[in-house]
Amino acid sequence: MNPTELKGILVSIILLIIFIGGIIWLIKSSNRKINEALIKASEKLNFLYSPSDRPFKKKITSGTIDGYKCEIIVYTQSHGESSSTYISFFTYFPDSLNMGIKINWRGQFEGDDDHVANLFIERNLDLVESHKKKLRRLKITDTYVNSRKILFKKYFNPEEIVKTMHDVVNLAKKIK
Distance between CA 132 and CA 124 in Å, rounded? Predict the structure, then answer.
């Protein structure tokens, strides 16, 4: 092997190390930022949160707002060769609605009893439709209201986390 080839291999190895180091730094930095945002948001909401140093470990903060049990969960979901990180806001009804109702992630209503489902839809359709723009991937069941979003940079801001949690609670309060 001549010195030129050796130099090319060495440069390739150094570039690979820099690239991998950059990815590791990006993951750690993102984990630190979301932990800081969740700590500040949990303090403002008076929720319980125990941060984790492990980047891909599920992060859960929970508490109560106006008598509604709430959770904020940050988790990574694998999709074959890639993965996405989500932030999910849950508000649980104090008592189950007991209607067999479900509004899936696509915003489509489903129910066990057509008559009860139709009554629920009639009472809440405009309300749900008006909230679908700001509460993405909205899911409603007999026991909870959930909004799940891809973790974007805006959720590194604790104010945005607090605002979205309150939006989910306010929707849960309005459902009849």
Answer: 12
Q: What is the pLDDT of residues 21-33, one digit of tens each?
A: 888 888 788 888 8
pLDDT, one tens digit per residue, over 85-97 is 889 999 999 887 7
Report the alpha-carbon distance of residue 69 to residue 54 in Å, rounded.
26
Q: How many CB atoms lie within 10 A of CB 155?
A: 22
Residues with Cβ < 8 Å from 128, sequence gap 6 or more? 103, 107, 138, 140, 171
Domain boundaries, the chain: 3-174
Angle (CA) 129-131-136 rounded to 5° is: 105
pTM, full prediction: 0.79
CATH code linked to domain 3-174: 3.30.1460
The CA distance from 72 to 91, in Å, is 9
Mention every residue, 6+ apart, whose C-beta is less than 8 A from residue 78: none
